[in-house]
Amino acid sequence: MKEFHSTLSRRDFMKSLGVVGAGLGTMSAAAPVFHDLDEVTSSTLGINKNPWWVKERDFKNPTVPIDWSKVTRQSGVFQGLPRPTVADFTKAGVVGGTSTDLETPEMALTLYDAMAKEFPGWTPGYAGMGDTRTTALCNASKFMMFGAWPGNMEMGGKRVNVIGAIMAAGGSPTFTPWLGPQLDTTTRPQDFGAPVWQGTPEENLKTCRSAFRFFGGSDVGAIEIDDDVLKFIHSQIGGKAVVVEDVEEAYETATKMVIPRKCKWILMWSARQSLEATRRQAGITESHAVWYSYSRFPKVGAQFQEFIRGLGYQALNPGMMGFLANPLAALAGMGEHGRMSSPTITPKYGTTNRAMWALITDLPLLPTPPIDFGAYKFCKTCGICADSCPFNLIQKGDPTWENPASAKSGIQQGTFEGWRTNTADCPHCPTCQGTCPFNSKPDSFLHAVVKGTVANTPLLNSFFTNMEKAMDYGRKDPEEWWDMDDFTYGIDTSY
Amino acid sequence: MFFVGLAVAVALTLFVVWLIRQQLAIKWYEWIIGFLAVASLFATVQHYFSSLEENEPTSAWMGALIFGIIFLILAALDWQLIIRHKKVA
């Protein structure tokens, strides 16, 4: 029988251990520190299962510097270009007049040129959205967008103007009211002499996460409202004053929407937009990935309001024009402020969340701190989204306290050191959202290496930006989408 | 990836058995170079197939090219170092 001898001496073995030890040491230094398992599950990282490289910061101290003394409450107004008519488009010789577009005819032409250069062979089709099947998908996706009731629709052999009928009955144009739908089928325990749901703030936040995911949402975060945080809830929504009062129940009148002082928490929730469709959108004014998200997510929010009501609590919906999403998302640890300005960059999904929406509630919630995964710093050297904008509206260069070019959009100046897109002139074309490097899926190990490095040092950010371009990440040919075996709703829920 | 891992594990085991039978004295840095070569091979295979899964064909072949070349260089270097031992021995 042969005798086997190790070819590795004790000294060599100890050297190897040293190499492994140094590697483990580096990893542990970069990884988040928890004191016990409860801390893991109760933190934002535990709630949303963020990757290991995401670090938490102090409350009210997101990566984007904020001058709280300058921030004031704003009015909820959507600044945009005047919507052109079919006649405007026809007069300018531009196809696409049937779309719900925001571009001027001149912008439409610029966009068509940009799309045709990016995707050779692409044409605007008869409606400016691409070929006929893409146009069909876009239009079908618009059904009840933003929670709006349909206009004329087929009902039992008749054309009925649904929104007209509802408005005539004294209703509102959407099913997303401030107080929630409050349907007869949504019972409250207190109305039956039963106790309301009792949970710790940690349990309640997890409960909200589970319910949101069931309805179709993704992640959650929470902020305790104080005088500073309230500045990001608009003072007026739809012409009504938004006020805090010492009342038990929230209410709404013809002139005001009332937040009971006991509603001390803002619950932020997100929902994802199809990644593959997002980066294959072309043509005027966003596209099917965006529109279908706006069709689906208002229902998620309304059903969640009903869920909170069923627990015995209140959930108030300020609506998309009732709050500033980017600062609230940053404060709640949902993501970081980045160059695109209005979309929040999230660690798992980049900028492919369509819902980053807020509810105000009296359900006690565990506040979640801001997070840092290097996105704000990365945006300083990246700028891929700004370079992609066909209208040159995304701010370039370093973050600033002011951007005069964005002033007409109503974004406050001097309040934060970041980037401000001129959203008033932005025609909401579908380009920039699909370009963000943080959109990448986690399949290749390389993304974990890059994102883990970016979270810890900005030294290689420029190199990573160049590699992003060289490896052709980002937008893809829209035509490919029809041959893909994409996920249901376009959402890969494995991450 | 399970079958890739299985194949690599079998190949590594056979390689180590072969080394032992050859009674070669592998230097510590040759172990490190060998480990890096195997890691590069893993990186090549993992990145290529997962990038195709991500619908990123350019990234797939570029990454495979970069990590594949690193693997070939390291593997050739390690092989030559070990072979030269044998000749000296």
Observed structural traits:
heterodimer; A: 495 residues; alpha+beta; 2 domains; five-stranded mixed β-sheet; 13 strands; 11% strand; B: 89 residues; mainly alpha; 3 helices; 0% strand; Reductive dehalogenase anchoring protein (chain B)
Task: Explain what you see.
- With 495 residues, chain A is an alpha+beta fold.
- Helices cover 32% and strands 11% of the residues of chain A.
- Chain A has 16 helices and 13 strands.
- Chain A has helices spanning 10-30, 37-42, 44-48, 86-91, 105-118, 132-141, 162-168, 201-215, 227-230, 275-278, 288-311, 325-331, 375-381, 384-388, 445-456, 461-470, and strands at 55-56, 75-76, 152-155, 158-161, 220-224, 236-237, 240-245, 251-252, 256-260, 265-272, 315-316, 353-361, 371-372.
- In chain A, β3 and β4 form a beta hairpin.
- In chain A, α6 runs parallel beside α11 and α8 (201-215) packs across α11 (288-311).
- Chain B is built from three helices and no strands.
- Chain B has helices at residues 2-22, 28-53, 57-88.
- In chain B, α2 runs antiparallel to α3 (57-88).
- The mean pLDDT of chain B is 89.
- The interface between A and B is medium-sized, with 21 and 22 residues.
